[in-house]
Amino acid sequence: RIVRGATSAQARLEPEPVAGLPAQPAFRTGGLHEVAVHPKFATNQYVYFTYNKAGEVGQNPNQRQSAITLARGRFDGKALTGVADLFTGEWNNGASGSRLAFGRDGTIYMTTGAPFDEKAQQANTVYGKVLRLTEDGKAPPDNPFVGRPDARAEVFSMGHRDQLGLTVHEASGTVLAAEHGPNGGDEVNLILPGRNYGWPKFSFGRNYEGPRFSEGPLGPGIEQPLVLWVPSIAPTGLTFYTGDRFPSWKGNLFVGSARRGGVPRTGGLERVVMNDKL
User: What DSSP letter does each residue of the chain carry, written as one string?
Assistant: First the structure.
């Protein structure tokens, strides 16, 4: 949808949706996930988006196979034209959300989830990862797993659960992702090339029945989170404040949340003060 004057007191929602998106059947975690404009949108009009491409229907029509997909089109002010898929992952039973962020070098960081199986620890699948792609959806030659026959070249980091927040620090190029634990153990992670963030072998969270998910939250070669929440806050969007209206907030990290602990509709906005050692 288009919102006119979004930052003014006269914000107005256009009545008609933006045309041009691929038609998709409704299913659990299906549909559109992220929308991001190209850094040079003013000249190329490129808009990128992620969605779960629908696959075969199993016994439960709400839990069909899907494949995480990155697509791109040109926005003419009313509709997307020339829409094409740039990257599609493997078919997967179950699905998760996905976020996008552009790096300072023009590459695209893309999150994928693997909340209920071991795929996050398998380098030969794109699920449970942060991916790094060119603006045309290819694997950059300097990605950490390029050339390995047992790994997908698009993989930048692994061992992730549900990642529903992603941002790049404009000044340093630092990449941060917000990740859901199973029940507690929500994290903000500093995303580094080739690193393992532990899921599902290690977690600060608990199973939904109550017991701890893993005997210990960390292990050899596992990256620690920058920020940790126990109990859950269900993190959503993630961004750095770069405005001038509140000078004392300059460079602070803002994290959206959907709940506090197990209480529905109690989320809010977290402000995290960062230092120069990001």
Answer: --EETTTSTT-EE-SSPPB-PPP----TT-EEEEEEE-TTHHHH-EEEEEEEEE----SSTTS-EEEEEEEEEEE-SSBEEEEEEEEE---EES-----EEE-TTS-EEEE---TTSSGGG-TTSSTTEEEEE-TTSPPPTTSTTTT-TTS-TTEEEE---EEEEEEE-TTT--EEEEEE-SSS-EEEEE--TT-B--TTT--SSB-TTSSBSSSSS--TTBPPPSEEESS---EEEEEE---SSSGGGTT-EEEEESEETTEET---EEEE---TT-
